[in-house]
Request: fold
Amino acid sequence: MTNELRPIPSDFAAKALIDDAGYLKMYAQSVDNPETFWGEQGKRLDWMKPYTRVKNTSFEYPDVSIKWYEDGELNVSANCIDRHLATRGDQVAIIWEGDDPSSDKKITYKELHEHVCRLANVYKELGVEKGDRVILYMPMIPEAAYAMLACARIGAVHSIVFGGFSADALADRVTGSQAKLLVTTDEGLRGGRSVPLKANCDKALAKVAHDVKMVVVQHTGGDIAMREGLDFWYHEQTQKVSADCQPEAMNAEDPLFILYTSGSTGMPKGVVHTTGGYLVYASMTHEYVFDHQDGDIYWCTADVGWVTGHSYIVYGPLANGATTLMFEGVPTYPSPSRFWDVCEKHKVTVFYTAPTAIRALMGAGEEHVKGADLSSLRLLGSVGEPINPEAWKWYDEVVGEGRCPIVDTWWQTETGGILITPIPGATETKPGSATRPFFGVQPVILDTEGVVQTSVEAEGVLCIKDSWPGQMRTVYGDHERFVSTYFETFKGYYFTGDGCRRDADGYYWITGRVDDVINVSGHRMGTAEVESALVAHEKVSEAAVVGFPHDIKGQGIYAYVTLMEGEEPSEELRKELVTWVRKEIGPIASPDLIQWAPGLPKTRSGKIMRRILRKIAENDYDALGDTSTLADPSVVADLIEHRANA
Ligand code: 6R9
Reply:
């Protein structure tokens, strides 16, 4: 890892929002006097009823409680749309670029207002009320943003299920949230292939006990079944209602959305974000991290099914009156030039993507970048997993032509917005480091015993001391799980689940998860989830899943499978299990490698020793460590001998 500081490109620095002295001054204010600092920042939004109390938070186990702006009232959709109408009504709010390079459209703030109001009125007609949950199962089309904002407008709580998740995973989330309504499309389109979203919804609802209505956007025109009296076409219903809908006054602490994410144990948990603090934080981070200025064409390539899409495609940019680009397709269709062609076509100025995409495009060759005119670009961002220095340098030199700062932004579904990141006009960067904390964020490194590391250079687990406004408030329906997952291990701190190193300059380097969560192409996957999908198959007796280094995906999924008595391993069964996991969870959970394991290394008390399984998957046999506590040490030799290979 290189330690050399990269200076801020001078043309960028000359026009940037703040410089290093500005950052240091604001950072000091933010931690010395959070009440005043966040009280001021709250004013970036329009409030229907002003707040008088800014911060009321405690990380003290077990009485964890997080409230920001708690007596204020506001509406998120009014802040993302209505307040811009007077000054930016005819400015483009959303640029949509379809999967097919010949399809695109532009939606102004005025048009956005009408679309969102109409859909909000449709929701109301279908019986959706303040506080009700609405599930969105959508491709990357503008209607996905309308559907989110329409929920916010009437105070309904949206929960987006990524379009790549299976019908079974969707059913779990519909039941878990007791949603009244599902919003979807006939089909999605990705890389020229259609994705049967409505058909998946039909399959999912067959497993759901309560009645759920559907609003269906006609996107591809594909053939689908509509249930009489329960399924409604978006284009028909929105024409029947008024184009105006008064935004509901919401308390700052009313929930805005639920987003399911994988954890180290059990099934995915519903992360709950609320209204006021979340939007203040999404707006502020979008402005400072992306140096947002009038005239920017901002493109975040994430999917709205992930938190990055929530905070940095929709809520942050629109709260700031930005022009945000939404892309339906994939980086490699119709060719590996697609990202760069889109940058040229729409004159993108700020580009935010994931290391996995950078590595894949780097592998495709420089010529795909060189063919496009990227002179509009001025800032590049990265998110989702640690970016390896080689990919960082390629991004810097080949895409950014040495002219664009790179912001490597570390954050999580739980944090609502970016916590550790360079501020592009202020922070000199180092390839592979997320650098310094954002305003109000106090990172702390602890050793595994929970001792705070006070020296500048330190390594351990990453925790955060004290709250920031964008923080999640609870796990939907299970506050105890929230408290025990994030606040029990290291008392008094928010535990991130990530390992981290702090160097002599005080820069933070995220080293990856320290729990049983793996990061596949920037997507979080709980090993427990994949294991429980595998053991649900009738021929599987036991399964243990770990991550292993993968050139493009960052981590791949390695599964050790023990079969039921009498079952024989075969290539056919291997394929069957992969298909099975795709059906249970979705393609992103497909095991890359399956090893048939007659036995798994266990302690005498029956606990699977994952440390050993990880080392075997990583091909790192010298570091197996102590195996003497195993109930049967001979299983290790067998596993090593039969290690699976790609
Ligand atoms: C925003 C998002 C969160 C986990 C997180 C960490 C990893 C995200 C990173 C990064 C190193 C970065 N992660 N950004 N690791 N450098 N810049 O990705 O949320 O899907 O919840 O994942 O992703 O391990 O804990 P989420």
Summary: The radius of gyration is 24 Å. The chain has three domains: 10-79+274-512, 113-251, 521-642. Residues 109-125 form the longest helix (17 residues).
